[in-house]
Write a structure and sequence with these properties.
This protein is an alpha/beta fold. It contains 7 helices and 25 strands. A hairpin with a 5-residue loop joins strand 24 (373-374) and strand 25 (380-381). Helix 4 runs antiparallel to helix 7 (447-474). Keywords: Extracellular matrix, Glycoprotein, Leucine-rich repeat, Proteoglycan, Repeat, Secreted, Sensory transduction, Signal, Vision.
């Protein structure tokens, strides 16, 4: 009996909390007791205004996908336990400064997809000193007031993608605890040298799918612990030599989908910890010697979909590239300059799909199927030269019998009666015979004596020919 009484006493707080959560739940919402308080779900409830009362024990409130247009001062009353508040996909157009007063322990605030918001007052987030995550995505904001985020010293993660900024919001400067910033698809045109000042704990920065044409020298100078930098799908045609200087902890760098036409050796000099490098979907036609020489820990290098015809091994030396190399969709010239790559493909198995565009003899083949020859001194022979040699062999020694028969044929032609002039011009053979006959010496020679001299000369000529052929075959 005593044990049962103890268990009833222990269960009372939990039962009381569950009952309190249910009793004070707004009519259009569903409330449930959770480990540390009460969870309130009011999403898709057709609400046009914020309910007047919430359970005091509420730790999470979800008001997504309603018709809320306005938040007045202290819109949620005093909720000392609230950690998470979500207002996504509403029609909010104005938030009164002080609307979130009374939420002193709020750690996560989601305002994404309120396309009519467009403007935030500098005092909108006053009293949210413990806020760690703020979601302002797809609010069509043109700017962020300089002082707006200064009220949030504990802010770690900011999602502000799909807005209309044109520049990196100045409100980010000095956020000493910010670790993640998502600014993609926000029409940003440049990363200035002062854009990211003071972000000494920033670990991930996404600027992808903007309109960035310029990254100023030293723009990432204060971001010494940055690990992931996404600049893909912008309009970058060039980068300063020290664009990424000081980013010694960077692990991912995505420059794909830009307009770069070369890779400079200075760009990646400090990126010894880099693991993933994306340079795909550019217009790269040239990679400087030593461009990847310090990237000894690289797991994957993406160079596909560019204009590369050749890639020198010197681009990687003196480091040793261990990861996967993606090279497809380039107009590769598969000559001896790529033989090192073929050897590496066979040895490591970490490179595939390198289609040849030239020379013509191997166009359409994969580099792995191209045959390179060796000269007598051990040097590589290009496929074009090798194929020419094989398909068009030089003259070889003819068999002796063939040579002798040709001389016998010539001898018989010499001894044949001279053809009439009109017959000699009927065919090419006849023309040749007439010429040969005309060229023989006839002065002082006549009758049978002349024929004997010709026969003797022909015999001597045949002997000489046989001797020459025998000597060639012996050599």
């Amino acid at each position: 009996t005593d044990i049962r009484g103890i268990s009833v006493v222990l269960s009372l707080p939990g039962a009381w909390a569950a009952g309190a959560c249910a009793r004070s739940c707004p009519a259009a919402c569903a409330c449930s007791s959770v480990e540390r308080g009460c969870s309130v779900r009011c999403d898709r409830a057709g609400l046009q205004r914020v309910p007047g009362e919430f359970p005091c024990e509420a730790v999470s409130i979800d008001l997504d996908r309603n018709g809320l247009r306005f938040l007045g001062e202290r819109a949620f009353g005093t909720l000392p336990s609230l950690r998470r508040l979500s207002l996504r996909h509403n029609n909010l157009s104005f938030i009164t400064p002080g609307a979130f007063k009374g939420l002193s322990r709020l750690a996560e605030l989601r305002l994404a997809h309120n396309g009519d918001l467009r403007y935030l007052h500098a005092r909108t987030f006053v009293a949210l000193g413990r806020l760690r995550r703020l979601d302002l995505a797809a609010c069509r904001l043109f700017s962020v007031p300089e002082r707006l985020l200064a009220e949030l010293p504990a802010l770690r993660e900011l999602a502000a993608f799909d807005n209309l900024f044109r520049r990196v919001p100045g409100a980010l400067r000095g956020l000493a605890n910010l670790t993640h910033a998502h600014l993609e698809r926000s029409r940003i045109e440049a990363v200035a040298s002062s854009s990211l000042q003071g972000l000494r704990r920033l670990r991930s920065l996404s600027l992808q799918a903007n309109r960035v044409r310029a990254v100023h020298a030293g723009a990432f100078g204060d971001c010494g612990v940055l690990e992931h930098l996404l600049l893909n799908d912008n309009l970058l045609a060039a980068l300063p030599a020290d664009a990424f200087r000081g980013l010694r902890r960077l692990r991912t760098l995505n420059l794909g989908g830009n307009a770069l036409d070369r890779v400079a050796s200075a760009w990646f000099a400090d990126l010894a910890e880099l693991e993933l490098l994306y340079l795909d979907r550019n217009s790269i036609a040239f990679v400087e010697e030593g461009a990847f020489q310090n990237l000894s820990g690289l797991l994957a290098l993406h160079l596909n979909s560019n204009r590369l015809t050749v890639l020198a091994w010197a681009a990687f030396q003196p480091g040793f590239f261990l990861g996967r190399l993606f090279l497809f969709r380039n107009p590769w010239c598969c000559d001896c300059r790529l033989q090192w790559l073929q050897d590496w493909m066979e040895g490591s198995g970490r490179v595939t799909d390198v289609p040849c565009a030239s020379p013509g003899s191997v166009a359409g083949l994969d580099l792995s199927h191209v045959a390179f020859g060796r000269s007598s001194d051990g040097l590589c022979v290009d496929p074009e030269e090798l194929n020419f040699t094989v398909s068009s062999p030089g003259p070889s020694a003819e068999p002796e019998a063939t040579t002798v028969s040709r001389f016998s044929s010539l001898l018989s032609k010499l001894l044949a009666p001279r053809a009439p002039v009109e017959d000699a011009f009927n065919t090419t053979v006849g023309l040749a015979n007439a010429s040969l006959s005309d060229s023989l010496p006839s002065r002082g020679v006549g009758g049978s004596g002349s024929k004997s001299v010709v026969l003797l000369a022909s015999y001597l000529l045949l002997c000489v020919a046989q001797h020459v052929v025998f000597g060639l075959q012996t050599d």
